[in-house]
Amino acid sequence: MFAERMLLRACERLVTIDGAATVKDTAALMAKPHTDLVVVCGQDGGMVGVLTKTDIVGQITRCIGSGCTARVDAMMTRDVVSCQPGELLQNIWSMMKARGLQRIAVISQGGKPVGIIYARDALQGLLGEVESDEALLRDYVMNVGYR
To answer: What is the pLDDT of residue 67?
Structure first.
């Protein structure tokens, strides 16, 4: 199975913000349910980094006064692991597992974000693939459909 089969759900989870935005702007986006990762985009719309709720909380603890005006591009993670729609889900899961990631950005060949894949979705996709293979093998062994 390829990542592109998960794009419908991945697109629904995509939240982006401009690198010049403030921490407060990003926190407002992350206040929505299931928004734990925000993709930071440059002027051309390409991904330049990501922000997590942990990044935001860390920055807010350093804010003084009633507002936090730090820019997103000053605190985002720049060395981002991402995948493309044509990649195998098994490879994506292996990369997520090796790096301890719960979410991964899906980017187009042009570097623009197109979605976010959650680890649980990747596992569900892989499980569905294994269950399908198991059913086919069981039918083959039992001679179902070959009479």
So the answer is: 61
